Amino acid sequence: MKKFLFxxxxxxxxxxxxxxxIKEQRDKLLGEGMTALGETSQLQHSLAAKxxxxxxxxxxxxxxxxxxxxxxxxxxxxxxxxxxxxYCVRNELNLYFYESRLAVICDIVLSSIPTDxx
Length: 118
Fold this sequence. Notes:
Distance between the termini: 53 Å
Largest sheet: none
Radius of gyration: 23 Å
Strand content: under 5%
Number of helices: 6
Order of helices and strands: HHHHHH
Shape: elongated
């Protein structure tokens, strides 16, 4: 019990004292932790979009402008679903892709959307 109490006191001191030596280490540790959490979250949320983008690039030869547009339009899974609804379901005009190329992209996007969201 004494060891645990000592540990709790040390942790509280680490997070509350503003001495430059402690503050520097605390900020470094918290920064690394937040960066790791942010990267993990982004990876989990955009896996389907990443798969769709890589498959589109594999099947179609894209110009730099088209690639930039797709990277922005299919950045996250939510944007992937919005793209599918807008251009594949509602058949709205897409300024970058049309006809057969848009049909290929729509097939890839549809296959990349998780089955629970279709």
